[in-house]
Amino acid sequence: MATLLRRAPPPPVFFQFSSFSTSIIQPKFKPSSMQCNSVVDEIPRTGENSSWKPMCLYYTQGKCSKMDDSLHINKFCHSCSIDRISELKNLRPQEFDYFLVLDLEGKVEILEFPVLLFHAKTMTVVDVFHRFVRPTKMSEKRINEYIEGKYGAFGVDRVWHDTAIEFQEVIEQFESWLRKERNGGGRLWTGEGDGSLNGAAFVTCGNWDLKTKVPQQCEVSRMKLPPYFMEWINLKDIYLNFYNRRAPGMLSMMRELRIRALGSHHLGIDDSKNIARVLQHLLADGALLQITAKRGSSSPDAVRFLFQNRIK
Ligand SMILES: [Zn+2]
């Protein structure tokens, strides 16, 4: 039987802030947390930050069987929620009720598929879908090397091997998760009509995940591209158009917004939580989250970018 304890993880990586560089372009809307002078004072002293624990990566996949073991519960985090922020006076109505924050890992084939369900009204993460993904076209030897190199560095290669399933199965389980009844009625997806999501949109950091990687993996796994991957919101483009500042990556957005990045960078579930923190700040500052990229319905390979001003 697989042990549920992750190998002793390396100490948590708390990203250090470099000094704040002032752009020549002044933001139209100043990020709310940019107003103090001291970097240290700007890091929110919240319960989440001060009591940070690594995620139980069995729990995130619905597979933790140690929920009544207090040692295990004390050692690992069993919630995907993020701290609420109190400054909400700039909030505006959104086109979407939910955002699906997605941040894939794996350059050759997808290795991790984490999705956080962010509720626009309550401004927090209300559900998670997380799976480790076993490559379909890679030798066992190559998989072992690949996983040791990538997840071994975080001390989570064991849980990867214990839980990873092939992409096709991940997508089947993801669709069951999307079909779940939420708040006594709504489903994020029913598969009816054109197969798009109901009141929800994917949010990614960049276009790579949905423009490039998912279609590539579908080809490798000999699957049709699911219809809900036809459009998405690239947070970098929202950030650029809202603050009128270029931030080329998740860490630079976090640095500029004075949000402390938590967890291990390039562990997909931790990166997704950090992207959800950026999303939360954008919403709190008053940004409107709109679709930034769409595939053509007759030629899915052609992606149209809807914002003129965007990160290329
Ligand atoms: Zn657990």
UniProtKB/TrEMBL annotation:
Annotated Gene3D superfamilies: Ribonuclease H-like superfamily/Ribonuclease H
Keywords from the UniProt entry: Exonuclease, Hydrolase, Nuclease, Transferase
Pfam families, alphabetized: RNase_T
Segments forming domain Exonuclease: 98-288
Classification via CDD domains: ERI-1_3'hExo_like
Annotated signal sequence range: none
Database matches in SMART domains: EXOIII (SM00479)
The protein's name: Polynucleotidyl transferase
Source species: Perilla frutescens var. hirtella (Perilla citriodora)
